[in-house]
Specification:
single chain; 5 strands; elongated; five-stranded mixed β-sheet; alpha/beta
Length: about 350
């Protein structure tokens, strides 16, 4: 317990909503200025031991420590006739934690909010420190739910991004389209800190398929962007290596996979194999330019979308080729998705 001035000292302030007159314990926490220096008054929280002990055995053990008999005369042990404990936790984070314990409805989080990691990081640290597992699990589940863990979920998110982009969202005074969806670099950081590793494959793939020229703070009308400054040198090396592997897979698609499709559709009874082969090659090339050379999932998704929404004519794939291509590409997409952890050198113990 640290020394603390008593009575209405300008060096301390009562929290406006978490200072209960019938509270039997007072917690003190530093208020951290925006620059990171503790220059503002410490904040006091008068709360109830039972509430905190009920949720946290760490608090229960802390409160079970005996208070010296002469504590009433020790300004560093008592404040307004209640025991005082000085904590090192940021006052804002502590307020969020206490609010969640007293009223869980105060933890309001939106789905697909790119600010979620910033909103929950502080309270997650305290929930971990004080072993409040239900709250920790709830926050991590919400965070992880914003990142696809299956190919179906990945495709659904890409559909939502495309729909927002083509609907004109993110234009004019609105935030760019990419800011309507989670950002991957901060997601990687949070996932590593709290062991939420299932987020990493999708987050790293998002980064690998984003041009390094597309920065989160640019404000341009883009499909996706990254906070590149949040990535460390190891992450950049991981992404560089993965891009080489992804580019090699795209090269395989443009050669061997196309050859396989040509052979299999010819055997399946394609009425015009030469024309369909040329159309497949043209389609592959049209979806493989620019940053897409690292995005086999996006290329195959584009080809499947195109063939699904274009009517069958003499200048499109025949029905036999459509069916065969749909089967093969969906199978290959699943293979790529399942292999993402290996592309990025990830495993369950990665940190």
């Amino acid at each position: 317990m640290a020394a603390l001035p008593i009575d209405n000292s300008p060096q301390v302030v009562h929290h406006p909503t978490l200072y209960f007159s019938n509270g039997d314990i007072i917690l003190s926490a530093p208020t951290v200025a925006s620059g990171g220096n503790t220059v503002l008054p410490r904040q006091l929280f008068r709360v109830h031991r039972f509430i905190l002990s009920h949720h946290s055995h760490v608090f229960a053990d802390m409160f079970s420590l005996p208070i010296p008999e002469n504590a009433g005369n020790a300004v560093n042990e008592m404040y307004e006739r209640a025991p005082l404990i000085a904590l090192s936790d940021d006052a804002s984070d502590l307020a969020s934690l206490l609010s969640a314990l007293y009223d869980p409805s105060t933890v309001i989080l939106k789905r697909m909010d790119p600010n979620t990691p910033f909103l929950i990081r502080g309270i997650l640290r305290l929930a971990t420190k004080y072993a409040i597992e239900p709250l920790r699990v709830r926050l991590l589940e919400h965070f992880a739910a914003d990142w696809p863990r299956t190919l179906v979920e990945w495709d659904r998110v890409q559909d939502d991004i495309d729909a927002a982009f083509f609907a004109g969202k993110g234009t004019g005074d609105e935030a760019p389209v990419y800011k309507l969806f989670p950002e991957p670099a901060i997601a990687v950081s949070l996932a590593r800190e709290f062991g939420c590793m299932e987020v990493l494959p999708a987050a790293f793939y998002y980064i690998a398929t984003t041009s390094a020229q597309y920065d989160w703070d640019d404000g341009r009308d883009l499909h996706q962007a990254v906070r590149w400054d949040l990535l460390d040198s190891k992450d950049f090396l991981r992404i560089t290596r993965a891009r080489e592997l992804l580019a090699a897979y795209v090269s395989y698609m443009q050669t061997e996979l196309l050859g396989h499709l040509n052979d299999s559709t010819r055997m399946a009874g394609c009425p015009n194999p030469g024309q369909c082969a040329r159309l497949r090659e043209t389609s592959m090339q049209s979806f493989s330019g620019g940053i897409s050379r690292f995005d086999p999932l996006g290329i195959m998704r584009g080809m499947l979308f195109y063939q699904k929404h274009v009517e069958v004519t003499q200048s499109t794939l025949c029905l036999v080729c459509r069916a065969q291509q749909d089967k093969v590409l969906n199978h290959k997409k699943q293979e790529v998705w399942d292999d993402l952890p290996s592309y990025f050198g990830l495993d369950i113990d990665d940190s």
